[in-house]
């Protein structure tokens, strides 16, 4: 195949199930193109609370290190080191919208 697609179908915001569900896709093309497709976005992304978890849209490359937690035996603290980030303008993520990333020639 030439494309790998992952779909998140009927995803609800915790504690806000009454606003409706989100359905969206990420498509990775063998040409290097990446397309995010937003089918159902029931509430503007800017209105989603970031108090419990960051609200982000875009691309980034990073790695994660698990270190022993000094406070809790047998647990680990997760540290994420981010290299680069391309953030989307979340005000433009609406029903039936898409964002395409096209690789530069190499």
Automatic annotation (TrEMBL):
<dbReference type="GO" id="GO:0016020">
    <property type="term" value="C:membrane"/>
</dbReference>
<comment type="similarity">
    <text>Belongs to the plexin family.</text>
</comment>
<dbReference type="InterPro" id="IPR031152">
    <property type="entry name" value="PLXDC"/>
</dbReference>
<keyword id="KW-0812">Transmembrane</keyword>
<keyword id="KW-0732">Signal</keyword>
<keyword id="KW-0472">Membrane</keyword>
<protein>
    <submittedName>
        <fullName>PLDX1 protein</fullName>
    </submittedName>
</protein>
<keyword id="KW-1133">Transmembrane helix</keyword>
């Amino acid at each position: 195949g030439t494309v790998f697609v992952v779909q998140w179908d009927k995803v609800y915001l915790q504690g806000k199930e009454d606003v409706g569900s989100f359905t969206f896709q990420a498509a990775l093309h063998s040409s290097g193109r990446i397309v995010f497709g937003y089918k159902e976005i029931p509430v503007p992304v800017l209105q989603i609370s970031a108090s419990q978890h960051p609200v982000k849209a875009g691309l980034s490359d990073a790695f994660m290190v698990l270190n022993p937690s000094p406070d809790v035996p047998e647990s680990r603290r997760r540290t994420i080191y981010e290299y680069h980030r391309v953030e989307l303008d979340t005000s433009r993520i609406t029903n039936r919208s898409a964002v395409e990333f096209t690789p530069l020639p190499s």
